[in-house]
Amino acid sequence: MLEFGGGTSCVLVEAGDQAVFLDAGTGIMNTPDVGARQLSIFLTHPHLDHILGLPFFPYLLEKNKRIDFYAKRSGTHTAKEQVGEVLSPPLWPCSADDYPADIVFHDLTLPVKLGDILIEGMDSNHPGGGTVYKLTYRGKSVVYATDYEYDPSKAPELVEFAKETDLLMIDGQYTAEELEGKRGYGHSTPESGIRIMKESKAKMIRFVHHDPMHTDDFLKKMEAEAAALYGISGTDNEGDLKKVAFARKDEVITL
Ligand SMILES: [Zn+2]
Ligand SMILES: [Zn+2]
After folding, report:
1. Which residues have a beta carbon within 5 Å of ligand 1, which is an ion?
2. How far out from the chain centre does Cα 170 lie?
């Protein structure tokens, strides 16, 4: 898993004076330097793999660094309560208030504007609920639909939401065969992602939330099959900006 990585969900979107983290899985531990940009974290949902990196987020150790943390209420849980258990004993010795940084929690209602970024959302199809985000900045957009289970009756909403997006990041955890025994787990196959990509006319796709049991070789095979389904193969889908791919650890995409 050296190429694709074994970190859990975290994507950083940098635009203008903003650095927006989508989810705080273990990937957030390896954040690049975001300079003087305003830091915020938007949570899709509080499942453990999406918040596990938060206690180790390097910027929490920077004195008075402001970090805005946004999450929709999950049931009765406020944004702060959703990460309360990984930031308190017995799971962890310190609370959010103990860190040198200044973490400000927001119970999110969408849309919101952060600098010049518009952040919109729709409900995900996932146990316990979740949020699919769209970030738009100066005519470019990205959609982040992790922990999303494809359902033909609900897919048109995502197709509309992701219309002509520059980058669609979508759940690609299972093969079609694996999905058979795992319906209702809240995850999808690359095949259904390609369907959403085609129907929405998204310009590029990155499958996220790969199954931790899938090896690099296995993911490359899934990737080639998905690209073929989209109608591209071999060298047409190579280079830094592949149209169809699984997201790689530390991959950087400039739109
Ligand atoms: Zn989940
Ligand atoms: Zn997850």
Report:
1. 47, 147
2. 8
